[in-house]
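Fold this sequence, please.
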Amino acid sequence: MDPEFIRELFAPFGPVTVKRMFGGAGIWAEGLMFALVFDGAIFLKVDATSVPDFEREGSRPFIYTRAKSKGRVGRASLSYWRLPERLYDDPDELAAWARRALAIAQQKKLAPRRTGKRPARTARTKAAGRARSRA
């Protein structure tokens, strides 16, 4: 999809930047990626509250293939759903959906990240561990 077409499509929403990545492109506003382009389709960032709207429109989640996965099985992304076709012809409504996707991206950026790592051991917890191992 042509970057100039994307910029014109999102013009009622505001200025966007299109950056190539991983065989597709990211659509950015205010320093955050809120949409992506892949195989000629646009996908917007979603959360649990916006997914039902996409489902009502008959939209589907972004499916990606993990390069190293056996058999290259496609997996659904829980973060991006396809822009409903009718929005390509309704710039004001597209702008509203884009604003919501950007707000979701902003919320996710501010949300605390779970690293999956255990908390660092302090001197106190180290001493307690040594005491347990001696017992």
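The mean pLDDT is 85. The chain has one domain: 3-134.
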